[in-house]
Amino acid sequence: MTKDMPIDMALFEEAWSAAVSLLPNNNILNIISKAKQEPYKRTVLNLFGTKEKIPFAYDKADLNFLYMNGVIDVEKTDDRKFYAKFPCPFVQKRLFHYFSDEIFDLADDLYDPFEDLDDVIDKNSLNVKNIVGLYRKYLAKNRGWILENAPRRSDMRVYEAVFHFNLYMYLSRFIGRFKGAVYPEFPTGNGKIDLLIQYAGKTHGIELKSYTDKPGYERAVGQAAAYGLGLGLKEIALIFFIERIDDPNRAKYETDFLDDKTGVRVTPVFVETG
Asked: Which domain of life is it from (predicted)?
């Protein structure tokens, strides 16, 4: 490498990967040290949620502390409202990696050793919906110890972000066994979380959401289609986290949707958290 070499995407991605995982960075270490402190950690975990934005007010002690220490920034909307957000995707990604590693240490048994994976993955392709099906079985089988020490809200429910971290760790370990990779992406800085899977020379997109109601479901499907179009994909998976869902509603809402405007096929999948 010489100083007159042009900076292309391959070189940028190499530098980015090193910055995320390898190079020492005192600023990031300081941000992590502040973000993991109680009670401010609760606010950071809430900021990773996808249900709604967190209103910003300077007189809120937790937001004040996180803002003054560079953990969060402020977003101003067109209607003159202010919301907390992460300062940039790089900081958000470093925090996401930190909390994923801190909260979870996955066991090796990601699936039954005699599980037939023919409809899940082969040398040339994978099926995201079926991989998530494996994750659902993994979570149902191991949720006792997985969530035993997970951070919880005041109502004792596990933070939504905990399931994002756990799914990311599961997919990373699973795809890694087949020489693929998973990358978290944070396009907005508050709430929106996407996972990109690179496997067999192809990119697969996953958008993570919390299910709220039918209008929210319909908006999420449209947003996922637009995101898939931006990635140049013909299909994208949309994973909804929900406390409970019965079989009739699962059959109804897990139907593939072909968006007329974008031509992108959206595959909704529900993961129970309760």
From this structure: Bacteria
